[in-house]
Structures are given as C-alpha cells and as structure tokens.
Prior knowledge:
The chain is built from eleven helices and 14 strands. By secondary structure, it is an alpha/beta fold. Strand 8, helix 6 and strand 9 form a beta-alpha-beta unit. The termini are far apart.
Amino acid sequence: xxxxxxxxxxxxxxxxxxxxxxxCRGFPADDTTSTADSGNxxxxxxxxxxxxxxxxxxxxxANSSIVTSLPYPGPTEEIPPTKTLQPDSYPAPATxxxxxxxxxxxxxxxxxxxxxTSGSSQTATPPPPPTPAPLPTLDFAAxxxxxxxxxxxxxxxxxxxxxxxxxxxxxxxxxxxxxxxAGVPLFIKTVDNAEPLFRAQELMKTSGVPHTLVYRSTxxxxxYELEPALAAQVHWQxxxxxxxxxxxxxxxxIETLNEPDRTKAEWFGQFALETARLAMAxxxxxxxxxxxxxxxxxxxxxxxxxxxxxxxxxxxxxxLAIALHEYSFLEENIAHQYPYKVGRFLxxxxxxxxxxxxxxxxxxxxxxxxxxxxxxxxQALRDLQWxxxxxxxxxxxxxxxxxxxxxxxxxxxxxxxVQQIVNPVTEFSLTNYFSIPQSPxxxxxxxxxxxx
Length: 452
C-alpha cells in the first residue's frame, strides 16, 4: 500500500510539472495560427483589432455619428439596424387653438420643433441646407432714389404669412432671408410659436430692415362681466406673462384679442384705452381688437371711448396699432363685396380723416379666402397682386398675413396649399414695387380707385 501511494504521488507530481512547462510556453489565442517548420511549432502575431464594419465582433458605439446600412458578415448574414443621428431638434406635443378655435374651446394637437441639447460629448452636426437658387431682385435703393427725385416714394408688396404650429422652418427661413437681404420689409404673425419671430427679430437687429412681427397667445378672452378697466388689467397681466422671454417687445407687436364681440364697442373702447396705458408703460407695442372680416360697423368706431382710442393710436403709431382680419370667405372671389370685407380698413381711415385724427397703424393679422382653402396658385397670385396694390399706397398698413401655415382642428390641408405659393409670393415681393405720394400727402380712401 505504501509503494502504491508513492507511485501515485510521483504520477501527480509529474503531471503538474508538464502543465507548468506548457503554461510557460503559452497557448495560442483563438485568432492565431499554428504552423509546422522542421518539427517546431510557432504562433503568428495576433491580428490587430480594427474599426471596420466588416468585423463581426465590432458594432457601432452608442454615441457614434456613423450612419450605416452595411450588413455584418456571418453565418446568419443579418442586416444590423441603421444608426440614426440625433437631430438638432425634436418633436414635442403642443396644443394649438388659433383663430376662432381659441374661443370655441376646440383644440388640436400638433408638433413644434424645439431646440435639444444632447447629453453625449459627440453630437451630430447636420449638413448645411442647400444654397437656394438665385431669384431676380430689383435694386430697391436705386428705385427709391429715382422715385424721390420725381416727387414720389417707394412702397413694397406687403403680403406676408400667418403661422401656427408646426412651421416649415426651411421655407420660412428662405422667405425671410431673401426679403431681408434685399431690404424688403416682411410681415409675419404667429400664434403660440415664438421661434419664427425670434429668427426674424435677429435678422432685423442685424440688417435694420423694418420688418413687422406680430405675436399672439391663444386664450385670455376678456372678462366681459367686469368693468372694462378692470377687465383690461386682468387681461393684460395674463398676456404679459405669456409673452415669450426671447422676443423683444420693442420690436415685436403683441396682439391679445381675437375677433371679439363688436356689439360691445363702447365697452371695448374703454378696455382698449386702459390696455394701451398698461402696454405703453411696460414698453410694449400693442395691436388692439383683431376684428373679424366685415367688422365693426362704421358707427361702432364712433362711440366716445372708441374715438378716444383711435385718436390715441393715431398719435402713437409706433406703440399702438389696430389689428384687422380681411377675408372674402369665397375661394373664387377675393373681392367679394369689396370694400366691406377685404378693403374694410378704408372705412377706418375715412373716419379718422373726418375727425381730424392721424391715421392709425393697421396690422391685417389674418388675410385670405376661406379658412381651409385657397385658389390654385395662378389665381391666388393674381389675387395677391390686386391686394398688394390696394394696401401699398397706405404706409400705415404694415402688411397682411396670409392664412395659414400650420395645422389646426378644422383647417383641412390649408397649410399644404399655402406652402405652394410661398415661393411665388417671395419672387413677387422681390421684383415689384409701388409708387406712392411723398408725405404729408395721403392717398384718398375712395374704394373706387382699386376696383378689381
């Protein structure tokens, strides 16, 4: 038994010695190759790791900016998922209640594109947008000089856009950039969407072109049950707090009312006087009323408080304005019942002239045919040309916002339709002008001058 034990001990000692020697020589790795040479075994150098997508062991890291659809080779020949870049912006839900929907309580859900900051240290930079094709553009400085030498002055086409959510950023940026570069003032009104106005505002700060920018928040219907001055204070505070911090109130008009009750003209005159006092004290530019197309009636401009407000607005044209809506309500006839719908601003100017007031600043913050339809592009452009000739001779009319770029609950595909005329409107604005009397002469208000 003792000899057997000694033999067993010797066997295990020998075995351990052989394993130790083998460990000292090193085992070949999985990715090495053994070759025989004169009875000797040698290991080739390990293959270095690479970043090639052809390697089955490699995958695109989570923060990679590579976009690929190349397959990985292997027994199953699977196609890996495409790595999608994190864009500069992301869609976030927003509630949109433009125009009458704000007062009816009907809402619609849309997407607004907001800035996003990536948590990764490696952020993807999108390629720059393609350079837009050049458009013909007049030398407006030379045109103005020629007109002024002959006792006239230059007026631009004033058709702009009404924007809700979400806006087509590239389309709007192209329109705004082209007009700004040419020195042509643009007109834009947005609802619950400060981003396009901020970009236009920054253009304005750099170029000095006097663009007209208008912002409105939905909601905030006046409290008719209160005394008008108190209702104005409550109303102003609500809209003052909702005004976006990134917008400059000395450059951007704030519109707080939307198609109010025209039968309360005297109440609204008192309301407007108090709101005007508050807005000017806070350094804002306020656009009052936002009357619906065809409103108000001539006598409703002439209540005591309304006349007082008209005089105040005429005396402060850079801080107070009157917002109007002008629609024909018919796709096939923009001049239907002219001047009682489109062109109704002429009655306001007639009353101001009759009373000896300075004509107030007018912002046509909604303009169009129907709430969900426009004519085909050729007809739409002819209608816009006529409207441009109507508004151009009146420097107090800063512009008209074509309804509508953006979605809503009941607007159909109006945004898609209006997108089709953005480029034609841009080209028209860059290649047309109107001659007007030099100040202090004022264009008469006779509607017959502009019969379509």
